[in-house]
Specification:
Elements lengths: L2 E4 L4 E4 L8 E5 L10 H19 L4 E5 L6 H10 L3 H18 L15 H13 L3 E4 L2 E4 L24 E2 L13 E7 L8 E3 L2 E5 L1 H10 L6 E7 L6 H12 L5 E7 L2 E3 L2 E2 L10 H6 L4 H9 L7 E3 L1 H25 L8 H14 L5 H13 L8 H18 L4
Parallel strand pairs: 3-4, 3-11, 7-8, 11-12, 13-15
Antiparallel strand pairs: 1-2, 5-6, 6-8, 8-10, 9-10, 13-14
């Protein structure tokens, strides 16, 4: 049975969906003030593998992914580029979806934009104000974490460190992976000269990043999510903020399982725009790498371990896939369209694949396992029907990996 490491509780647990009729998954999507780089796609591809493996295991899946198109960063970047926020973010959304398709990623059932969920934001804020968990201050609205029992439970925050003097944090996001010990903003009240705002029941202004995910979740899902995913960055502040907002309004948990993907690093440092060490999909294409090789590099590792990028590692990983595919091609030629017969090698391939994927989605070990089985096959000794059976098993596995055929 599939076991997943649940960040909530910090332990491995057997996966049991909330609703047997289908698995609901929500994943943090990109902040589309910039083009997504391969560090971003490392997380998105882990989530794609998760969804594909759930389907492989027989679960119907409904997935949502948010698109953060209105925030401090998009406003600042649009100003810098002398364009509008809408033009900037729409361009990056188009590029993101195009690259998702190119990398054989399943497009989520729901791709809500923050800018399209303003009514939901207002309803959430009104509810939190009524509950006195949120409050107005200088025309902004803030969430008071001390009013939510168990705040910080996802991260495991030591609340004894909370300052006795009230502090408020006004920005959508803050640099670094540390905690802001204080009240966080939900609504940016209008200031004279602001170009980005909505006129709403609670007044003129715009939603903070912190309240956008709850608004997009509530617009499509109305029960406890089976799984909530994101990058490890989101474990600092953001996901506990989201959880506190949602669970303040609903009498049931936000999600049963929380999964977080580690960073892609280059020269030992997290890949990020602020460090100037980012690599894009199209730049790897220009260097001669196939899309399947890029996808393989980004899934070839355990999602809870840092993945190191270098030109040397990229070449070596691409060579691993190329050698494997050459062997598969030889087996496919031997099959020559014959009707398959069940054989022990089919069972061995499935066992190596599912045994490792059931262990917290260990895609690297799963690939290495099937690679070892395939490498030991003596193609000349295979009967065509046996070869056809092997190819059938590999095609089924490739519905998850999407790198072989």
């Amino acid at each position: 049975m599939l076991r997943l490491f649940n960040t909530l509780g910090k332990r491995s647990e057997t996966f049991r969906p909330v609703n047997r009729k289908g698995v609901t998954v929500f994943t943090c999507g990109p902040s589309v003030y910039q083009k997504a780089h391969i560090g971003n796609f490392r997380t998105f591809l882990f989530e794609d593998i998760l969804v594909r493996y759930l389907i492989y295991a027989g679960y119907p899946v409904q997935r949502g992914m948010n698109l953060t198109d209105i925030e401090d960063k998009s406003i600042q970047e649009a100003k810098k580029q002398k364009t509008t926020v809408k033009r900037l973010t729409e361009k990056n959304i188009r590029a993101f979806i195009s690259e998702m398709k190119a990398l054989e990623m399943k497009i989520p059932d729901y791709l809500p934009k923050a800018s399209e969920c303003i009514n939901e934001v207002v309803e959430i804020i009104e509810r939190l104000l009524t509950l006195k968990i949120a409050y107005w201050h200088n025309e902004n609205v803030y969430f008071d974490p001390l009013k939510f029992p168990g705040f910080g439970k996802l991260y495991g925050l030591d609340m004894s460190r909370w300052p006795s003097r009230k502090k408020r944090f006004h920005q959508d996001t803050y640099p670094g992976m540390q905690w802001n010990l204080g009240d966080f903003i939900l609504w940016h009240g209008y200031r004279t000269g602001n170009a980005h705002y909505w006129d709403t029941r609670i007044g003129r202004g715009r939603p903070s990043w912190n309240v956008q995910d709850p608004s997009m979740i509530s617009s499509h899902f109305h029960e406890t999510l089976s799984i909530y995913c994101g990058g490890i960055d989101n474990l600092y502040r953001h996901h506990d903020y989201t959880l506190a907002i949602v669970e303040s309004m609903r009498p049931y948990p936000m999600a049963r399982y929380w999964l977080h993907c580690e960073h892609l690093c280059i020269n030992g440092q997290k890949m990020s725009k602020s460090r100037g060490n980012i690599v894009y999909i199209d730049s790897l294409r220009e260097r001669g790498y196939a899309l399947s090789e890029i996808r393989f590099f980004l899934i070839y590792g355990h999602y809870r371990e840092k993945l190191q990028y270098s030109d040397k590692l990229m070449r070596e990983t691409a060579d691993t896939l190329r050698n494997f595919k050459r062997k598969v091609k030889a087996i496919e030629r031997k099959a020559a369209g014959k009707t398959r017969i069940e054989n022990p090698l089919m069972q061995e391939l499935e066992k190596k694949f599912t045994g490792n994927m059931d262990d917290d989605l260990n895609a690297k070990k799963a690939f290495d396992g099937i690679c070892k089985v395939v490498s030991e096959i003596k193609t000349d000794d295979l009967k065509p029907a046996e070869a056809a059976g092997i190819i059938k098993a590999l095609r089924k596995i490739d519905e998850v990996f999407r790198i072989i055929f």
